[in-house]
Each structure stands twice: as structure tokens, then as C-alpha cells.
Inverse folding.
């Protein structure tokens, strides 16, 4: 009897750790909320309701917020897979958005299909171009990409400010935003009556494509080898890992650029200075939580999107201020990581 | 006489009593007893995975035993970490050195020695002189001002030993210290160890080269699959008896009796599959290869002897076609087989399953593609065949390479590389760190490969292990300071070649 | 964007009714009958506010939040606030509030214009107010701030105070609303002293104190003895420069902008051009409840929420005759007899007007 209890306890051990981590985090978050004079039950209720309260809410809020995170998460994952630490998705996103917007507003007479293709290409090129500088500096001068991509983010931010305040400012010349892009360039809703735009579908297709590419093709295999062990890649004598890294980096920038343009074409209709609240950085957490797996990135982006949408509801419906909401979200993300680690450790212990 | 006898009545410097250590389902040490007398050199022998390193790590406080007792100087102790062990006078020199690459020798010695620092964290005045005196006392030739990353392997090892012996040491553990040394350096190391032992320190020498152990050790302990199978004075055992104890079966025609290989028998084929002419390679400022000329012929094992760091890596890379010469001409086949020096980092990807590791060498061959896709089922089938063929102990193609023992990793690597190269195979220290049985298997495969291919391919064997070169190579060259020196048939002896490579090798190491 | 405000807004309630009345009188919205005033919550209306920055900024966002709280406190309505980070959240918040039965939703900043327009079309029962907005509809109301009118009065005072005949203006980001206040300020100076020279510098930042101080010192070295700023949080640098100039040369004055800064540097600030956002929000909420929030209300001197407030501690610095002219100009502007020059940057001229329009003075 006692032995059986012991056995059950042992079987539960791997599960217990993540559950405990989650429970502890929820307790800490609840305590913090209570400390700020907010009802934890109301707050968490609002969070869940805001993200998943209705089908429309899920599509229009959660998935819309998930879309830029999905795309930038994939961008980050492509680079990380190849062992290139692209911290510059934020800047590449802005560069892509700027390129797409500049083309769209200067070419209003183009037909929808042409404009769609051209703006997507321009955005991808813009993002890739933004990745080119770190790539060149890494290849030519051996400067680490972490610092260069990070600095390029600031350059992109200032460039966006300059363009939005100057050459690309709305034709009235009043506020720091561009003119609205032509209707032909905007992405249609996926389902009538919701705000979910075709950009999410683009993200899903991209995730599927990347998953197939990474796991099933020689090219994707090389990317993974280059990232896991560049020395083994060299020793295999089959390809030059540095080249693979460069192309992956470029692809990463292009995907991040698409993320920026898709946000403009699908949601805002204009470029603002503050287009991104830091998706390019959150994307790192999205990608790492998903262990760089494209399929898992879809899930992880939706989780982050739900936190974003639910966070808004926490403010609106539970009266929790922004700072508390973000703090609670950060704690929940930490808990997720702990849970993930716990399960990973548990599964290793089993084998 | 044996130094241990002089300290006969003292309590053992260290003792393990019935120590068991498990890793999951694997029993790494099974009720092992081990005793180290003060002032003795104790050889610890065993195959890969026999538990030698685990035993040393238990003594060094890096692993805590599941059962059994650890005694230091007659007192039962519980070592929670390396610092505990260090306080009790146990020091360990690891197989992979733990020096800070950018620090000088002195800085590395001072870093972890409490004596180097005042309680307020300042450098102790006169510590430098103290270190120099200690080095002289131990007969350790070290350059304290050279940065660790510029030192030769032997120099780094001497710094490690000096570091370990700066404070009072009862027990000195050395894990495979001779694996990377040239014969003369091994001699020098053993001389230092004898001197250390004479001062009363017990030395544990973990090794797999029987002759070295026999020449230095007073007593030996042999482990096999976690169990102690033999212990006693070294003079009571022959090398053959020890080898049998290690592998648990008669070893037959082993390197201590006969040679597997044949002397050059005139079957030398004239067709050259790879040739280097006046090749200069490496960094333009200080090229590692300075005008190398060689030709690898089908059916021939070309041995390149020499101490590591004399251009071996660059030679292999040029032959493998992954390093372009700065000048000179390199004619090499497009995709030769290559068993790189660091099999864990270069040969295999530890985080990948075995089938992906096989794919590393096969993924661009049309036979393993279906349209744009990789033919994973075909690769998996090939992997299974290779695993069976090379007798690799692995659960299956899905197992991760890092979970395999060194010997099994090398078996897979040999199988994979032999499988892919029809013209040329470059083997860098192919038996490094392998136990007797595994090393023998690898050597036999190489020889069979070079002789029996249709047509026979060329093998370039690059190894600092002179025994291995002498045993396998049809023709021998010595790589010294980026230049190749031919070894005539009359010079085919360890002493002749050793003298050749060491004279220049030391000059490189010491600036 | 016009920025500025404080937690300590000086309420000027005596004129609230006045502004409301003006707005009502001029309302020319598409549906003039006030009967469809949305009040879905029945007894107690609900009001929501969106800001794109933290309400702890002691400025633009804080003013709106205080307005919201005032609506809750003095009218007893249900209130809610969300700080949005991304344009995606703009729509999300408008939709959520409208669906949750909030009848009046403020989007505090031009950036909410597009999203508010979409929401207004989708939810005809709710009213959406956009600060500095540029388009109007039956249930979409832009709030237009006319800080220029107060800046004009401040300019008159500055023209009276300056003996050197050189007046300086230090701005943050060069945007039309900021330029507009300077244009009006300069016109005010010229009205009193037509010979005066006006200097203008933009630092490019709302919060770079060092840059603001540097720009102010440069103007003072060029002979200015009176400065006004429009640099929001960096105004401290301007006041400091004036203090230091006074120590060296004995005479230098400053004017505050956006909020009442008379107490911030009482020894140098002669008066402030003030905009009272909380009062405006409260007025708008009352007007909405009465069914009279229509068109595009302009908040100028007539509303009482915008005014020039002299520093009582330095009352004798401004010459008495100039004070009298200021008082007259205040009446003329409020009545519409005098129009302050401004930059016509909004689409307001196409919007239904809420204040009398006169031909430009020039």
C-alpha cells in the first residue's frame, strides 16, 4: 500500500514540478494584483474572457495580435536555427513596413494583384536589406551580429521617425504618419465580420513551409547543421556553413520585413512612428519558447497574442493599470518557460 | 624501491570502500574498492566506459557516490564539491584542460589558488617567486608569461599540474594525461610525476596505454564495466595480462605481440589520388603549412607523424578540400572521407540523432533524394546498416549522437566515412581515447579498407601516436613546424622518428 | 500634437457652460435632433478613455485621465481606461468598449482617428471623441484645441515685458500645433511692439532638458530677454537658462506653456498659456449627455478651458496699459471679433464649425 503510494508519487514527480511552477507563479501574480488593490479573480477572468471570450474575439483580437508575433517569431527562428543571433527583427520589421508603404502610396493606380505582389516583395526586400549590413559586417569585419542587429534597430527607428515626419508624412502635413495606403494594397478580412486579415494565413503558410523545408529538404538540413555545429558542417566537406548562415540571415530579415508590411496592410492602413511595440524583441521569446519549431511557433505566438488581447481586457474590465498587466504577463511567460523546462527535464529523465 | 613502501605504515592517502555510482540505469561503478598509498603512482586502467574517469571524479568530489565510503588520509569524508576535495588536498588534472585561454600561465596558476590572494582580494606579494620556485622544485618546464592559448598541449598540461600542486596535495589525479603527448614529453611527464610521488603525494594515473603505466606505476588497478577486476603491484603483471583483464577476453594478435599491418609489400599502386605541391596554408602572417609536398596513392596508408600543432589540422583540411592553400597546388578528390580530430564536434553533431549524422555525409547524393525532398527512410535504412556493420552499440537511428560513448561514436564515424570515400580517406588520430579493443577494430578496418577496396583507395593517417603510425603506415612522413620530412625505411623506429619530431616540436612549443 | 497638462489642473469652471453653449449653438451635425442620444446603460452612462501612453506622464495623457476621473467623480458615471500599445489594439479597445455598452469613448490623440472612424461606422449607438481629430460624423466628434489664442495673449504680455525688443521661442518637435502656438505668440508680441524681433528654435525633442537649455541660452545670448517654450517635459531647461541669464545680465523672463507653470519657476515665469484638458473632457461628457455634442467643437478662449494665466507673484512686471490691452484682446477673441493667426493644419475648415469665423486679419 505504502509502496504503491510511493510509486504514484514518483510517477507524478515530473508533472508536479511544472504544475507547482505554474501554481506558484499564478499565486505570485495574484498576490501582486491584490497588493495593487485589484481583484485577481476579476483580472484573470478578464484576461481569459478578453482573449477567448467569443469566437469573434479570438479571431479579431487574439489572432490579430498574434500575427506580427508569428511572423517575427518565424523570422527569428530561421536565423537562430542557422546559429545567427538576429536580434534585429524589430528594425527589419520597420524597414519592411517602410518599403511597403512607400511603394503603396506612391503607386495608387496599380491593380490590386500587382500591388499586392509588389508590396510584399518590397517589404521582404526592405527587411532583407536591413539584415544585409550586419551580415556584411560579420563576414567582412568579424563584428558580432548581436550588437550590429541591435544597433540597426535604432537606425530603423530613427529612419522611420524621419520618413514619417518628413518625406512620407501625410499629404496634409500635420501628423507624424503616412497617408493611408490605397484600398487595393490592404489585406481583406479572412472571415466577414471579423478583423482577422489574410496576414495570419500568410503566417500559417510560412510556418508550414518552413517546417517542411527544415525537416525534409537538403537545404533545410544544411541550415540546421550550420546552426548546430558549424565545424561539423565544414568537416562534412559538403557545403560552406558561412554561406548557409548568410542566406538564412537574409531570409530572416525578409520575413521580419513582411511582418511589418502585413501589419500595415492588414491592420493600421498607415505607417506610424510607433508601429511596433517591440514585436521584434518579443519574437525572441516566442521563438525560444517554441524551441524554434515552426509549428510550435504558431502556438506560442497565439499564446502571446492571447496575453496581449487579454491584457487589454484586464485594463478595460478589471481596471488593472497597464504596468500591472504587463508585469503579470511577464510572470506568466516566465511560468510557461519553467513549465516547459520542467517537462523537458522530465522527458529526459524518462528516456 | 617502490616509493609506497617507504610510507608503508601511514594511512592510505585515499580509499574508496564499496563505492557504487549509478547514472540512470547504468552502473558506472559497482562496489569498487580502491586504495592509494601516500607517495605511490597508481595506474588506473580500463576500457572506455569502464569507470576510470567516474572513479577519479568521485575522489575529486565532482560526483557523490550512491553507496560506499570515501576516505581521505584515513578519515571518512563526504565531498560535496571540488572545493571540499581541494581543501582536503585532492587535486585533479582533467583530460580536457580547464585553463583560461587568454590568461598567462602565471595568471592561470594564481586564479584558483587561495595562497595567491590576500583575504582582501589583493595579489600576495612574492607569489610569483613562490610559483617559480615550486615549478623548479617539481622539474616542470613552464613559461609563466605565455598565454595559455599559445601554449602547446604539453605546456598547458604542465601548467595544470603546477596549478594543482601549488597548495599541499595528498592526492593528484590525472585523467589520460599522456593521450596527446609525444614520447619524449611522456617521459618528461612521468619524471615529474615520480618526483611528485617522492614528496609523499599519492598519484593516480588514469591511462589506456599499458606500457606507459607499467613504466611508471608502482601498483595498478583495472576496472571493467564498473567493477574492479584486478589490483596489485605492477611488476606482478605482464602487459598482456593487464590487457586481458581490461577487455575480459584473450586479445589475440594485439599490438603488444604482433602487428596487424604489413610492411610495404610492393603492392604500392602508382595512381595518385591526391597530391600537394609546395602548399602553403593557414594564416598569411604565420602559415601553418610552409611548403608541403606529398602524394597519396591508392592502396597505400600514408602515415603523417608529428606532435599536434605542427600543421596537422591544416594538412587534413587541405586534403579534405575545405581549406584553400595560400600558394602551391592541391589536387584532391572532390568529396573525400574525413575522420576529423574532434569527432564529437567535427565528425558528429551531438544534438542530432544518428540518422541525421549519417545524412551529414549523404544528404547531397542523388540516391538519397526524392525530388526536392530528402529520402529519410533511405537514410534511416543506411544508418541501420552502418550501425550493424560497424557493431555500434546504439538503440537505433533515432538515438542522439551525444549519448553514445566515444568508442561507439568513432565506430559510427569510421563506418560512415569509409562508406562515402571511394578514393581518399583522411584519418586524424582515429584511435585517440579509444580502448584497446575499439582501437584495434578501427585500425583493422582502416587496413582492410586500404587493401581491399575495388579499386583500393588511399588513406592518409595523421597521428601523434607513433606506435599507431609504425603499425599501420606503408610510408611515413613527419610533419614538423609546417614542413614534411620523409622517413626512410631504415629510420622506422619510435626512437628515430620521435627524435626527429621532438627536436623541432619543442622548438615550436617554447618559442 | 499639443502636449502638456498637469495633475494640478486649474479648473476654470466659470466658463464651462460658455463653451458648451457655443458648441451647442453652432452644432451643424448631420442629425441635429438630440433625441437619439445614446445611453445604453440606462440610468448611469459609461465613459471610456484610450491613451497611447502612460497616464503617469504628468502631461498630455495625465490630463485626459484626470478628465475621465472627474467625469466619474462629479457625474457618478462608470469609467474605464485602457493604455494601448499598438494600432491593432486601437480597434480592439473601441470595439470592446462599444460592445460592453460604453456610450462615450475618448481616443486621446490624432492616432485614434482611423480606428475611431471604423468603430463609429460599426457602432452607431456609441459616440467616439478623438482629441485633435480631423473628421466628424454623427457619432464621431473631433476635439480641437486652440492653444494659439492663449499663446497670442502671452505674446502680448511678452511684448510689453521685453525691453530689448528681442523675444525667443524654444520648441520641441517641429509639428504644426507647436508652430501654430509660436505663430500666434509672435503675432501677440508684434501687436504690442511691432519693432520686436522674434527668434524661433526647435530642439527636436519633447524631453531633452539639456538641448532645451542650450537653445534657450543661445537665444538669450543673441539678446532676447523674454522666452516662451513649447517643449513639454523639457521646459525646466528653458527656465534654468533664464535664471542663469538673469544672474549674469540682471533681466530675463519666461512664459509657461500648456499648463500653469507659474508655480514651477515663480521668480521668472510671468504667466502661462494654459489648456485645461480635464475641464474639456467634463464639458464634452455633459454635452454628450444632453445630446448636444455634435460637430467639431473648438476649445479656445471662449471655452474657458484655454487661457492665459498671469503669475500673481509677478503681477507688476507687465505694464498696466498692456494688461488692459490683453484684457480687451481676450474679450475680442472670445467674442470672435479678433481672430488669432494660426496654421490651418486640420481639416477643420471642412468640418462643421463651432465658433464664429472671421476673415483673416491680414
Amino acid at each position: 500500500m505504502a509502496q504503491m503510494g510511493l510509486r504514484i508519487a514518483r510517477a507524478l514527480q515530473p508533472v508536479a514540478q511544472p504544475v507547482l511552477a505554474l501554481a506558484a507563479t499564478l499565486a505570485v501574480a495574484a498576490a501582486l494584483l491584490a497588493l495593487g488593490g485589484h481583484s485577481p479573480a476579476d483580472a484573470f477572468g478578464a484576461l481569459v474572457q478578453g482573449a477567448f471570450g467569443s469566437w469573434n474575439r479570438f479571431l479579431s483580437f487574439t489572432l490579430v495580435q498574434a500575427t506580427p508575433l508569428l511572423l517575427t517569431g518565424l523570422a527569428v527562428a530561421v536565423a537562430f536555427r542557422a546559429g545567427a543571433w538576429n536580434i534585429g527583427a524589430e528594425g527589419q520589421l520597420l524597414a519592411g513596413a517602410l518599403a511597403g508603404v512607400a511603394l503603396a502610396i506612391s503607386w495608387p493606380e496599380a491593380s490590386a494583384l500587382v500591388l499586392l505582389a509588389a508590396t510584399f516583395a518590397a517589404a521582404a526586400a526592405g527587411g532583407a536589406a536591413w539584415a544585409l549590413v550586419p551580415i556584411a559586417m560579420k563576414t567582412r569585419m568579424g563584428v558580432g551580429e548581436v550588437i550590429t542587429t541591435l544597433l540597426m534597430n535604432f537606425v530603423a527607428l530613427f529612419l522611420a521617425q524621419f520618413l514619417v515626419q518628413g518625406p512620407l508624412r501625410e499629404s496634409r502635413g500635420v501628423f507624424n504618419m503616412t497617408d493611408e495606403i490605397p484600398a487595393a494594397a490592404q489585406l481583406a478580412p479572412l472571415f466577414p465580420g471579423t478583423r482577422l486579415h489574410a496576414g495570419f494565413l500568410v503566417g500559417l503558410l510560412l510556418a508550414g513551409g518552413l517546417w517542411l523545408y527544415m525537416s525534409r529538404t537538403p537545404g533545410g538540413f544544411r541550415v540546421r547543421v550550420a546552426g548546430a555545429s558549424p565545424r561539423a558542417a565544414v568537416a562534412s566537406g559538403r557545403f560552406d556553413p558561412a554561406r548557409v548562415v548568410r542566406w538564412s540571415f537574409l531570409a530572416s530579415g525578409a520575413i521580419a520585413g513582411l511582418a511589418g508590411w502585413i501589419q500595415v496592410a492588414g491592420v493600421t492602413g498607415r505607417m506610424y512612428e510607433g508601429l511596433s511595440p517591440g514585436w521584434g524583441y518579443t519574437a525572441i521569446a516566442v521563438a525560444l519558447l517554441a524551441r524554434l519549431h515552426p509549428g510550435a511557433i504558431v502556438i506560442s505566438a497565439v499564446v502571446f497574442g492571447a496575453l496581449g488581447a487579454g491584457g487589454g481586457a484586464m485594463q478595460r474590465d478589471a481596471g488593472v493599470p497597464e504596468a500591472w498587466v504587463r508585469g503579470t504577463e511577464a510572470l506568466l511567460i516566465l511560468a510557461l518557460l519553467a513549465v516547459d523546462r520542467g517537462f523537458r527535464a522530465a522527458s529526459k529523465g524518462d528516456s | 624501491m617502490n616509493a609506497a613502501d617507504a610510507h608503508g605504515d601511514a594511512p592510505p592517502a585515499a580509499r574508496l570502500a564499496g563505492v557504487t555510482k549509478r547514472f540512470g540505469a547504468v552502473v558506472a561503478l559497482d562496489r569498487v574498492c580502491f586504495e592509494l598509498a601516500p607517495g605511490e603512482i597508481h595506474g588506473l586502467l580500463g576500457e572506455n566506459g569502464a569507470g576510470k574517469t567516474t572513479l577519479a571524479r568521485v575522489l575529486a568530489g565532482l560526483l557523490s557516490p550512491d553507496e560506499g565510503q570515501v576516505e581521505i588520509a584515513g578519515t571518512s569524508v563526504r565531498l560535496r564539491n571540488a572545493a571540499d576535495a581541494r581543501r582536503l588536498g585532492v587535486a585533479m588534472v582533467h583530460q580536457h584542460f580547464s585553463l583560461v585561454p587568454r590568461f598567462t600561465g602565471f595568471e592561470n596558476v594564481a586564479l584558483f589558488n587561495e595562497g595567491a590572494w590576500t583575504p582582501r582580494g589583493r595579489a600576495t606579494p612574492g607569489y610569483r617567486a613562490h610559483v617559480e620556485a615550486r615549478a623548479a622544485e617539481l622539474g616542470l618546464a613552464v613559461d609563466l608569461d605565455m598565454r595559455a592559448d599559445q601554449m602547446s598541449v604539453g605546456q598547458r598540461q604542465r601548467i595544470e599540474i603546477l596549478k594543482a600542486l601549488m597548495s599541499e596535495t595528498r592526492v593528484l589525479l590525472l585523467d589520460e594525461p599522456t593521450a596527446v603527448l609525444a614520447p619524449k614529453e611522456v617521459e618528461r611527464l612521468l619524471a615529474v610525476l615520480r618526483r611528485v610521488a617522492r614528496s609523499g603525494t599519492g598519484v593516480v594515473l588514469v591511462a589506456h596505454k599499458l606500457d606507459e603505466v607499467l613504466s611508471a606505476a608502482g601498483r595498478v588497478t583495472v576496472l571493467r564495466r564498473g567493477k574492479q577486476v584486478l589490483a596489485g603491484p605492477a611488476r606482478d603483471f605482464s602487459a598482456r595480462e593487464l590487457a586481458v583483464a581490461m577487455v575480459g577476453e584473450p586479445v589475440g594478435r594485439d599490438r603488444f605481440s604482433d602487428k596487424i599491418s604489413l610492411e610495404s609489400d610492393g603492392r604500392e599502386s602508382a595512381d595518385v589520388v591526391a597530391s600537394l605541391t609546395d602548399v602553403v596554408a593557414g594564416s598569411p602572417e604565420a602559415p601553418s603549412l610552409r611548403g608541403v609536398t606529398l602524394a597519396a596513392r591508392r592502396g597505400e596508408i600514408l602515415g603523417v607523424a608529428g606532435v599536434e600543432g605542427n600543421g596537422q589540422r591544416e594538412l587534413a583540411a587541405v586534403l579534405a578540400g575545405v581549406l584553400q592553400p595560400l600558394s602551391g597546388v592541391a589536387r584532391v578528390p572532390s568529396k573525400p572521407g574525413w575522420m576529423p580530430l574532434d569527432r564529437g564536434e567535427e565528425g558528429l553533431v551531438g544534438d542530432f540523432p544518428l540518422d541525421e549524422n549519417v545524412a551529414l555525409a549523404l544528404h547531397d547524393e542523388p540516391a538519397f533524394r526524392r525530388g526536392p525532398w530528402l529520402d529519410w527512410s533511405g537514410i534511416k535504412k543506411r544508418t541501420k546498416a552502418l550501425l550493424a556493420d560497424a557493431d555500434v552499440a546504439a538503440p537505433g537511428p533515432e538515438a542522439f549522437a551525444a549519448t553514445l560513448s566515444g568508442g561507439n561514436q568513432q565506430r559510427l564515424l569510421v563506418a560512415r566515412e569509409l562508406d562515402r570515400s571511394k578514393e581518399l580517406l583522411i584519418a586524424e588520430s582515429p584511435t585517440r581515447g579509444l580502448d584497446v579493443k575499439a582501437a584495434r577494430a578501427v585500425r583493422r578496418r582502416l587496413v582492410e579498407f586500404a587493401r581491399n577496396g575495388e579499386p583500393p583507395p588511399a588513406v592518409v593517417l595523421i597521428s601523434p601516436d607513433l606506435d599507431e603510425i609504425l603499425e599501420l603506415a606503408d610510408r611515413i612522413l613527419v610533419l614538423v613546424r609546417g614542413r614534411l620530412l620523409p622517413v626512410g625505411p631504415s629510420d622506422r623506429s619510435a626512437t628515430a622518428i620521435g627524435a626527429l619530431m621532438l627536436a623541432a616540436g619543442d622548438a615550436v612549443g617554447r618559442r | 500634437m499639443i502636449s502638456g497638462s498637469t495633475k494640478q489642473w486649474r479648473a476654470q469652471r466659470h466658463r464651462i457652460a460658455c463653451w458648451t453653449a457655443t458648441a451647442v449653438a453652432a452644432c451643424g451635425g448631420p442629425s441635429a435632433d438630440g433625441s437619439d442620444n445614446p445611453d445604453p446603460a440606462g440610468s448611469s452612462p459609461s465613459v471610456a478613455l484610450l491613451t497611447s501612453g502612460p497616464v503617469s506622464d504628468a502631461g498630455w495623457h495625465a490630463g485626459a485621465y484626470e478628465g475621465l476621473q472627474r467625469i466619474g467623480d462629479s457625474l457618478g458615471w462608470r469609467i474605464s481606461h485602457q493604455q494601448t500599445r499598438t494600432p491593432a489594439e486601437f480597434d480592439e479597445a473601441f470595439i470592446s468598449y462599444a460592445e460592453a455598452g460604453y456610450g462615450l469613448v475618448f481616443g486621446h490623440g490624432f492616432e485614434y482617428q482611423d480606428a475611431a472612424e471604423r468603430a463609429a461606422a460599426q457602432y452607431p449607438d456609441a459616440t467616439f471623441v478623438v482629441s485633435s481629430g480631423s473628421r466628424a460624423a454623427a457619432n464621431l466628434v473631433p476635439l480641437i484645441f486652440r492653444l494659439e489664442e492663449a499663446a497670442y495673449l502671452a505674446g502680448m504680455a511678452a511684448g510689453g515685458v521685453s525691453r530689448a525688443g528681442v523675444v525667443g521661442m524654444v520648441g520641441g518637435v517641429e509639428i504644426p500645433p507647436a508652430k501654430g502656438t509660436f505663430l500666434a505668440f509672435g503675432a501677440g508680441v508684434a501687436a504690442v511692439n511691432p519693432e520686436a524681433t522674434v527668434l524661433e528654435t526647435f530642439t527636436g525633442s519633447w524631453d531633452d532638458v539639456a538641448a532645451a537649455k542650450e537653445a534657450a541660452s543661445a537665444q538669450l545670448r543673441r539678446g532676447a530677454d523674454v522666452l516662451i517654450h513649447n517643449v513639454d517635459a523639457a521646459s525646466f531647461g528653458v527656465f534654468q537658462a533664464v535664471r542663469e541669464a538673469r544672474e549674469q545680465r540682471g533681466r530675463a523672463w519666461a512664459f509657461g506653456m500648456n499648463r500653469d507653470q507659474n508655480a514651477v519657476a515663480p521668480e521668472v515665469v510671468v504667466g502661462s498659456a494654459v489648456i485645461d484638458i480635464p475641464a474639456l473632457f467634463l464639458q464634452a461628457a455633459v454635452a454628450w449627455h444632453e445630446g448636444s455634442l455634435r460637430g467639431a467643437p473648438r476649445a479656445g478662449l471662449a471655452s474657458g478651458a484655454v487661457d492665459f494665466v498671469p503669475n500673481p507673484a509677478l503681477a507688476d512686471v507687465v505694464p498696466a496699459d498692456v494688461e488692459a490691452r490683453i484684457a480687451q484682446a481676450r474679450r475680442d477673441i472670445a467674442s470672435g471679433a479678433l481672430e488669432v493667426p494660426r496654421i490651418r493644419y486640420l481639416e477643420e475648415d471642412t468640418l462643421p464649425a463651432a465658433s464664429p469665423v472671421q476673415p483673416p486679419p491680414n
Q: What stands out?
A: Chain A has a mean pLDDT of 89. The interface with chain B takes residues 216-218, 221-222, 224-225, 228-229, 231-239 of chain A (CB under 8 Å). Residues 2-35 of chain A form the longest helix (34 residues). The radius of gyration of chain A is 22 Å.
